[in-house]
Give the backbone structure.
Amino acid sequence: MSNRETRIRFVLKPLAFLAGLAPLAVLAVWGVTGDLGANPVETINRFLGDWALRILLVSLAITPLARITGSATWVRFRRMAGLFAFFYAVLHLTSYVWIDQHFDWTAIWNDIVKRTYITVGMAALLLLIPLAVTSPKAMVKRLGGRRWRKLHRLVYPAAILVVVHYVLMTRADFLEPAIHGAILAALLAWRLYDRRPPALRAGGNGGKTPRPTRRRVVA
Ligand code: HEM
């Protein structure tokens, strides 16, 4: 195994894993020290939702970063980022069902059908499920690279729905949802730009910009 591979596997990946768990650790510390504020249920739920969205945006930024820096190493962290986003989204849903609604399924169902932001959040999570399920390398092989990549494009509508969910639940001060929306818009714009044939891209460098993810599906 090369030095680079050893560094990725035994240093960078464990560090990235710890970084992914850091928000949960912060929440646990706040819980123990009683720093969850006047409305702990709301703090917990919103904190988990915020981190699910932030990490989802990080996962979407990985391919552009790899292309811009010319380093395929970034791509080695994409699957972990995607799974952490899903993990926080599931915890966010769990906090809503458990500590907010106390498993009152009738109230939850009424929320889903009557409150648009809950309907939209649910739709976003439903879109993320097939992506999480098909994230293992064995599933990439089973589906085949083309079908896998097609399926994983669902991450874009899912992210759009999450931002809509955020905007719809906000009653005042739209700055934060707007910032997240702007970041997502930039990532989507880059994605559309990157689909153009190399000769049409700025500089027309004939595709010299490294494209680490097209040839092999690196999870
Ligand atoms: C599974 C369905 C979902 C439900 C039932 C749900 C429920 C909620 C609730 C109850 C709130 C807080 C509303 C309030 O305090 O007034 C919220 C906010 C939020 N949710 Fe969700 N959500 C869902 C899916 C998602 C997903 C998939 C994500 C991200 C990947 C997400 C990200 C957020 C964000 C960023 C906020 C705003 C947090 C803030 O105000 O700082 N939600 N959601």
User: Anything to note?
Assistant: The chain has ten helices and no strands. The pocket of protoporphyrin IX containing FE is lined by residues 42, 45-46, 49-50, 52-53, 56, 89, 92-93, 96, 118, 121-122, 124-125, 162, 165-166, 169 (CB under 6 Å). Residues 44 and 95 are 7 Å apart (CA to CA).
